[in-house]
Amino acid sequence: RSLYLFELKFRRRIESTVISEVQEKVARLAVPRGISIRTGLIYAGELARAITEPDAFDFLIPASRLMNVS
After folding, report:
1. Whole-angstrom Cα distance, residue 50 to residue 35?
2. How many angstroms separate the CA atoms of 36 and 4, rounded?
3. Which terminus, N or C, of the chain has the lesser number of Cβ atoms within 10 Å?
4. Count of CB atoms within 10 A of residue 61's CB?
């Protein structure tokens, strides 16, 4: 059982500060025992290198993929 928390960012360049912003939001959640939190970033723009590190987000989804834009 999981709770999925997604952050939306639409900027020319998305800085690595988004990682700590999402971690802070996760820390504020009162999650029942036995529930894991999975994080994701839906984005449009250039990502800072740290965002693409394996432990930053569980999911990285370009906004264009959601809109079927080639």
Report:
1. 27
2. 9
3. C
4. 14
- Which residues contact residue 13 at a Cβ distance below 8 angstroms, ignoring those fewer than 6 apart? 45, 46, 48
Say if residues 6 and 41 touch (Cβ distance below 8 Å): yes
Rounded to two decimals, the pTM is 0.89
pLDDT in tens, 13-36: 999 999 999 999 999 999 999 999
Give me 43's structure tokens: 């984005």
CB 64 within 8 A of CB 44: yes
